[in-house]
Design goal:
The protein is of the alpha/beta class and 133 residues long. 42% of the residues lie in helices and 22% in strands.
């Protein structure tokens, strides 16, 4: 069993990883960090670059958290589908997602990765939100 966390390189994503690490330590398990990248690659703000991934790896290692970081290409799938695939693959006991404030129109046009995970995850989901900047 593992704790899976969807990661984007912002304050909310960092908070999600921090909470996932805390939950994993409390549960005596590991963390699987998932950063999903689409065909746009690193130009999207949700895509972590090598520096982000290296810093995250160093932080989790320094904190003594067993972890794996998966930087996955979503192809034609949505990020939520990729994250949920990892959740099912590892039989995760918890998923941690960061949430952002979005307008109703933004939700309608773009969908919501966190919402899809909340609705479709086969295990408990913990949603976290960083304070607004």
């Amino acid at each position: 069993m593992s704790v899976v966390v969807g990661y984007v390189p912002d304050a909310t994503g960092y908070l999600a990883v921090t909470e996932a690490a805390r939950q994993a330590q409390w549960r005596g398990t590991n963390v699987i960090v998932v950063n999903a990248v689409d065909g746009s690659g690193y130009v999207r703000p949700t895509a972590a670059d090598e520096r982000d991934i290296d810093a995250l790896d160093a932080k989790l290692t320094a904190d003594g958290v067993p972890h794996e970081i998966r930087h996955l290409d979503v192809g034609t799938a949505r990020a939520a589908e990729v994250i949920l695939g990892v959740v099912e693959e590892v039989s995760a006991e918890l998923v941690v997602v960061g949430i952002h404030r979005r307008s109703p129109v933004g939700k309608m046009l773009l969908g919501s990765t966190a919402q899809r995970i909340l609705l479709d995850a086969p295990c408990p989901v913990l949603a976290v939100r960083a304070p607004e900047a």
